[in-house]
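Mods, move this if it's the wrong board.
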Amino acid sequence: MAILDTNQVSKQYQMGEVAVDALVGVNFTVTEGEFVAIMGPSGSGKSTLLHLLGGLDGPTDGEVTLAGNSLSLLTDKQITLIRRRNVGFVFQFFNLLPTLTAEENVALPLLIDGQNIKKHQEKIDELLELVGLTDRRHHKPDQLSGGQQQRVAIARAFVTDPAIVLADEPTGNLDSRTGEEILELLRRSCDEMGQTIVVVTHDAKAASFADRVVFLMDGRVADHLKLTGDQTEDIRQIQRRLRALEV
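Not the wrong board. Structure tokens:
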């Protein structure tokens, strides 16, 4: 079952008197339980595509379908509700509220949605355990390491049981060891919880945790690569495709 689908999606920005094509005729599908990485040179349209997939922005042309909903047919208020209940976001800059504890940051999407936090306490506890922060639940962001803050952000993204989690360079601000732990956590959530994940990354090793890689170039889908699970070989193949795009 397709969780996300784009049909001939294009995005154009106006820079003064010049029209800039950020995306051109992109067809992109993500099925339930799949882990997909999006890669490409700087300026290829990776983050723009992620924003369209999550309903944070709208395409100039084409259609984005999220969890069975054609976004172009919905009002801004309806899109906000669909996004709130169907999409979990993980960003490079954690985006935690500094005055809230780890537990309160995890629960925040439920609070925004007007839900009774006490009814979801078991879910919150399970997620804190999943990300290894049960003993840090009452700590505020400035009392946590970067890796721990990103773990809080991941638990927050999962708390609404979203149809899909979208992550934009989730390891970009972390050291290599901590970054690998975060990617292993995302991989495990896909394998054990059936979570659907799309990650934008510039790092071949990060992309190697996915099931497949979609390569963008000049706003277009330039290539696809299905990964084998042999990380060394997968990284080699990813790097080869990236070099071919940058020639």
